[in-house]
Design brief:
This protein has about 375 residues and is α+β, with helices and mostly antiparallel strands. The chain is about 25% helix and about 20% strand.
Length: about 375
């Protein structure tokens, strides 16, 4: 794992994603950006925006991966046992679409793109967002894996009082072990559990993209906080919170505790720092410093941000250790550590995570070399 090189030639393309599991996702996006892949069944392909196609393809790849327990089909349900998915895609403050609370459609970024391209609106929610997807020809599917059902049943057995508020129970903060260990890049592994054991947790795939001609775009997809209060919406589908793009200036995506990210409009804050003359490093650092300045932070809180300026320079920062980002450019794909960590000594998992609730998952398949 390396530090991220922040300079790219102005005529080169680049995709960047949050967390190590996004490496495979942005590789799928890169193939689309480079023109080497065809759309999946059910995937919109306009043919005139390969960068948006690449962002969408990356997010869809993560949605389909059952080993990613915080996005799409691998995600975990809310406190009622139902799945809900959020997502967004963005080109500019005038070209943005988001959806939240999807219960019947697996790819929120695909639905969000339809909102952006076929309506004058910016955000649709709940059953009406699912109905909108139906009306535009997207197939309703089962969102919950059998493993997620088992995880919910085990969680419910621990809460016989029938609580519908798990916000005090989902106390793990994401710590990314990378892709080399038995966890396969899963984020929520207290201590050193056996291969394939991952406690419940949450986080988002956020993808930033820049084409070789300087176009910018971003996307987010998530299943949100596991066992959350039904109806809870985090930062991911909201412009300025989970993602923000301003052509000619830059773009950003944030990940971690959604309530903290929304509290400072983290992605907008990063891009606004660029607009006011700051560097990408200034912008990334500003987000985590402002997070800390809010006060009353708890041991499970984490916020991380990736920032890219219009010229393709990239920087990232995290409130605490444990964040990893992925990059794909003409030099290939790789994982990188953030440029700055606000609280570098907070490396241990929180006390509440040491008795983490394990979600049993199969070890990741080994690809032939």
């Amino acid at each position: 794992m390396t530090s991220l090189s922040t300079d790219h030639r102005r005529d080169t393309a680049v995709l960047v994603g949050t967390w190590s599991f996004s490496l495979a996702a942005i590789e799928a996006g890169w193939r689309r950006l480079a023109g080497h892949a065809v759309p999946e069944v059910g995937e919109e392909a306009t043919g005139d925006d390969p960068l948006l196609d690449a962002i969408e393809a990356a997010c869809r790849h993560a949605d389909l991966d059952p080993d990613v327990d915080s996005v799409g089909f691998g995600g975990l349900p809310d406190a009622s046992g139902r799945m809900s998915l959020d997502g967004a895609i963005m080109r500019s403050p005038l070209r943005f679409g988001g959806v939240c609370g999807l219960r019947r459609h697996l790819h929120p970024v695909t639905v969000a793109r339809l909102v952006m391209e076929r309506t004058e609106h910016r955000l649709l929610c709940g059953e009406d967002a699912d109905d909108f997807a139906d009306a535009h020809g997207l197939e309703s599917v089962e969102l919950q894996s059998s493993e997620a059902r088992s995880a919910f049943a085990a969680w419910r057995d621990r809460h016989p009082e029938g609580t519908r508020d798990a916000s005090g129970d989902a106390r793990l903060r994401p710590v990314d072990p990378g892709l080399g260990g038995p966890g396969g890049g899963r984020l929520f592994r207290p201590g050193d559990p056996p291969a394939g054991a991952a406690p419940f947790g949450h986080d988002t795939i956020g993808v930033l993209g820049r084409s070789s001609d300087g176009e910018l775009a971003a996307g987010c997809s998530t299943s949100g906080l596991p066992f959350k209060v039904p109806g809870r919406v985090g930062d991911s589908p909201i412009a300025g919170h989970g993602l923000f793009v301003e052509p000619g200036v830059g773009l950003a995506t944030a990940t971690g505790t959604g309530e903290l990210i929304s509290g400072i409009s983290a992605s907008f804050l990063a891009v606004e720092t660029l607009r006011r003359g700051g560097t990408v490093h200034d912008a990334a650092r500003e987000v985590v410093c402002r997070t800390e300045a809010m006060g009353d932070l708890r041991e499970h809180h984490q916020v991380a941000v990736i920032v890219m300026d219009a010229g393709g320079r990239i920087a990232s920062a995290a409130l605490r250790p444990g964040f990893i980002l992925a990059i794909r450019d003409a030099d290939g794909g790789r994982l990188c550590v953030p440029d700055f960590v606000q609280r570098p000594d907070d490396a241990g998992l929180p006390e509440s995570a040491r008795e983490g609730f394990a979600k049993s998952v199969a070890p990741p398949p080994q690809e032939d070399s």
